[in-house]
UniProtKB/TrEMBL annotation:
One of its GO terms (molecular function) is potassium ion transmembrane transporter activity. InterPro entries: K+_transporter, K_trans_C, K_trans_N. The keyword Nucleotidyltransferase does not apply. Residues 2-164 form the K+ potassium transporter integral membrane domain. The keyword Ion transport applies. Coiled coil: none annotated. Keywords: Ion transport, Membrane, Potassium, Potassium transport, Transmembrane, Transmembrane helix, Transport. Residues 177-418 form the K+ potassium transporter C-terminal domain. Pfam families: K_trans, K_trans_C. This is Potassium transporter. It is found in: Cell membrane. One of its GO terms (cellular component) is plasma membrane. It comes from Citrus sinensis.
Amino acid sequence: MIASQAMISATFSCIKQAMALGCFPRLKIIHTSRKRMGQIYIPVINWFLMIMCVVVVSIFQSTTDIANAYGIAEVGVMLVSSTLVTIVMLLIWQTNLLLVLCFPLVFGSVELLYMSAVLSKIAEGGWLPLAFASVFLCVMYIWNYGSVLKYRSEVREKISMDFLLDLGSTLGTVRVPGIGLLYNELVQGIPSIFGQFLLSLPAIHSTIVFVCIKYVPVPMVRLEERFLFRRVGPKDYHMFRCVTRYGYKDVRKEDHHVFEQLLVASLEKFLRKEAQDLALERNLLESDLDSVSVASRDPEASGSYGTEELKIPLMHERRFDESGTSASEETTSALPSSVMALDEDPSLEYELSALREAIDSGFTYLLAHGDVRAKKKSFFLKKLVINYFYAFLRRNCRAGAANMSVPHMNILQVGMTYMV
């Protein structure tokens, strides 16, 4: 019973870590604790273990064969652990090379003796863990291989900003009121699927937000910290990038109206903060220019200041650091009206009014249905792996884009084929 519980917990943990490394298809993970991130439950794996336990017992019908299989699995874990500890000692701990060599010699020799004793039991039930290991290795390798090729294709086919600038603010089409939320996995750059939307649709929304969902290793992300915005292109393009962060205990299947309200509130806050930073930067630049002009008109003062700086540089730096806070406060108090009253900024007011008009027209969720296919000149084995095995895993794994309960009438999906 102890060994079975340890195997179940270890299987959940290994599967989760493999998914985080991109080496296993996405599965549903249930976190059962708000304090311990590693306390998880994977329903599919739990059912798989139960079914395979029944199958193994019904096939072997003997504890002797099951013990042989368990022995090879146990010795294999010992060998893998010793190998990994040796690598950690050499690369991470940077232990003395002599001690690193002594560790595998001492422990590895004992484990190899155990392995030589259990290898004769392969035909008597010991083949089971080797078969399981081979199947899982193939699944992990195929998924990682296909995912890496797909990601490289997305990065290689990103739309350049120069191309968008050539299209102009209309993006080569008609801009209609509304907000388009385009889901993708790229944190930087414009995904190639956006070009498919421009080619397939007769018009595009006046405000485009590229949404990228990321999961962070904390229980819950505060609402005011959930969205990270950044502008894409000039202001008149009305395009933004939004990284949406969720903790492992956050409700991801939230109502789409709640999600839209939070996103719009964060976007308005970003626009006001951007306008304030630009106005503050202009004011500081003007004050620097004024100080330079005053210094140029008073050469004696500037010369004496340079002499003092050469004499006591440390005191000057300390004085500058101590006065940093008060100077910033004085600058803030001396800000122009464009900073103190942001609502009066014409560019900000225009952008906020355009955003409100887009909100009134509604949201549209732009989703991409990507199909990964091997190139025609690829080898037969690569075509077999990508076109059949990897495609099968993609069709049956958990979807990774939008998890909100969005009505079908608000979803617009465009297909795209990635040739890898």
